[in-house]
Amino acid sequence: MAKHMRLVSGGRPFLKWAGGKSQLLGEFGKRLPEGYLKNKTITRYVEPFIGGGAVFFYLNQRFSFEQCTIADLNEELVLTYRVIRKSVNSLIGELEMLESAYLAKNEREREAYYYEIRDAFNRDLPVIDFRHYNARWIGRAAQIIFLNHTCYNGLFRVNRNGGFNVPFGRYKNPDILNVDNLMEVAARLKNTRIIRGDFTKCRKYVDDRTFVYFDPPYRPLNATSSFTTYSRGGFSDKDQVRLAKFFRELDRKGATIMLSNSDPGNEKAGDSFFDDLYDGYTIKRVPARRMINCNGARRGAVSELVITNYGTTKA
Questions:
Q1: Buried-most residue among 46, 97, 108, 163 (CB within 10 A)?
Q2: Crossing angle between the packed helical segments 107-123 and 75-103, to the nearest 10 degrees
Q3: For 56-73, what is each residue's pLDDT tens digit?
Q4: pTM of the model
Q5: Could you read off the pLDDT of 224-241 as tens digits, one per residue?
């Protein structure tokens, strides 16, 4: 391995996240720039759409980067990452109270308690200062984790006003609090820069020693499969075009880059949207499973795209 990297513990995702990459880590592992990681001096890792962080944690279990930068447009998500980094013990205390209260109830009472917490979460939104760390953040991060692990399908979805609107999920023994993992995540985040904002905010942290992984909100496979409402705005085809331009900009800076997205060909043969956007780069289709769809019959095997600015001989 390169002198800047060693095997370390890195935790695992603490939230369920639509579009999370846990199921694809094996395929991604085959396509990492191993030659670059082992033989060159890649010292930075940047992930502008952190989401649940599956790839971030996967890489940090295998390599030690001198510097990591993660970002997301979702203000609630960024708040939670920052709370874990700064106040993990206080967060664990809040989650212990939520978990204890929830598990002591029967199913009917649990459902009522879930909506009580959801209503409080939405009611407090106008008074949350997302810019400056404060004591309110800890309770809010605990609510986010609680709602995520007790809501239907483990979704994070908000309406146009930013209100969390996922209904109750009927789980007998939800994993609300995992102390060991939260402590591991906190340790990993200690030296990680956490940014809230558009993916282009990561620009100044990227150089020719950086590995960048892009996992943007996926282009919907069809009109009913869009789960991009993780923040108050969506992610349109215009945003996908803007991201492709940014990909090329970072390529010119000498960064090593991987990007994943849905394959339009799953629904419409011959749809070359991403093939055209990333013409000239390495585009591979990998097997995946579509896990989230309101129609269970439409869940199943699909392919996803992995796009890199390095060739297969170095992956």
A1: 46
A2: 150
A3: 999 998 888 999 999 999
A4: 0.88
A5: 444 444 455 578 999 999
Cα–Cα distance between 79 and 180 in angstroms, integer?
A: 20
For the chain, which domains are there? 22-73+197-314 (3.40.50.150), 77-180 (1.10.1020.10)
Q: Are 258 and 284 in contact (CB under 8 A)?
A: no
Greatest Cα pair distance, the chain, in angstroms, is: 58
Residue 126, judged by CB atoms within 10 A of its CB (0-12, 13-18, 19+), counts as exposed
Q: Tell me the two tokens of residue 277.
A: 């956007």
How far apart are the C-alpha atoms of 263 and 271, rounded to whole Å? 9
Tell me how far apart the alpha carbons of residues 128 and 144 are, in angstroms, rounded to a whole number: 13
Using the predicted structure, report yes or no on whether residue 41 has a pLDDT greater than 50. yes
Q: Which amino acid is at 37?
A: L
- What the block records as the tokens of 261 is 């997205």
Tell me which DSSP letter residue 129 carries.
Answer: -
Q: Which of 59, 56, 63 is nearest to 40 (CA)?
A: 63
d(CA 45, CA 38): 14
Looking at the chain, which runs of residues are DSSP E strands?
44-47, 67-72, 192-196, 210-214, 256-262, 282-290, 300-308
Phi-psi region of 13 (alpha: psi -120 to 50; beta: other; left: phi over 0): beta
Tell whether the model's pLDDT for residue 119 goes beyond 90.
yes
Q: How many CB atoms lie within 10 A of CB 80?
A: 23
Separation between Cα atoms, residue 137 and residue 208, nearest integer Å: 36
Q: Rounded to the nearest 5°, which phi and psi values hold at 90?
A: -65, -40
- The one-letter amino acid code at 90 reads S
3-state DSSP assignment of residue 158: strand
